[in-house]
């Protein structure tokens, strides 16, 4: 099953690639519209490479951390059941979809990239769930019970968001494979799992090891 509207968003960057529905490993019944497994990885023109660098299409992959956090939520739905959940840097929407399937009362998929929000909408429909789409994190009104975050700490400048999340919500779940010296007040590691990005980017072993962190406000750890 191919999503032609999302395929069109690839534009001139990957003219021989396409977006198609793919089942996620170890996540029964869940699919995402992702870049085809046999997408062309060689022979890109200088113009295409420059376009990809200026407009990274994070939404065409299910990154390892997003896959791990999705599995975690679906295996332990009490984390989100009946809660208002915000997925920050939603990308393809994989974690937002998982939270909706696990019984969240509302899921807000937040991403600056309009194409990512289009992917979130398409993936929500593909999986028969609903979510609210929001481009501006600071425009989200009302209380948030839980913030879920995967694959956004690739740039250390993004670490400032860890405090912003705690200031906004009583609990935060973070999945990350990039920060090796993760040591921040009010956050602790609660799990570690192995996973690969889909399609497989043949990443090194260190980036296949995903850690899950729980952030809570002062005095809330047992």
How do the strands and helices of this protein lay out in sequence?
Elements: H1 4-9, E1 19-23, E2 31-35, H2 46-54, H3 64-75, E3 84-88, H4 94-101, E4 106-110, H5 114-126, E5 132-134, E6 146-150, H6 161-168, E7 171-176, E8 187-194, E9 209-216
Parallel strand pairs: 3-4, 3-6, 4-5, 6-7
Antiparallel strand pairs: 1-2, 7-9, 8-9
Note down, in words, how this protein is organized.
- The chain has 222 residues and is of the alpha/beta class.
- Helices cover 25% and strands 23% of the residues.
- The protein contains 6 helices and 9 strands, in the order αββααβαβαββαβββ.
- The protein has helices at 4-9, 46-54, 64-75, 94-101, 114-126, 161-168, and strands at residues 19-23, 31-35, 84-88, 106-110, 132-134, 146-150, 171-176, 187-194, 209-216.
- The strands form 2 sheets. It has a 7-stranded mixed sheet with strand order 5-4-3-6-7-9-8, sandwiched between helices. Strands 1-2 form a two-stranded antiparallel sheet.
- α4 (94-101) links the parallel β3 (84-88) and β4.
- α3 (64-75) runs parallel beside α4.
- The chain is globular.
- It starts with a helix and ends in a 6-residue tail after the last strand.
- The mean pLDDT is 87.
What kind of oligomer do you see?
Answer: single chain
Cα Rg: 17 Å
Helix and strand composition category: alpha/beta
* Net shape: globular
What's the mean pLDDT score? Answer: 87
Count of helical segments?
6
Q: Termini separation (Å)?
A: 46 Å
Helicity, in percent? 25-40%
Uncertain runs with pLDDT below 50, 5 residues or more? none
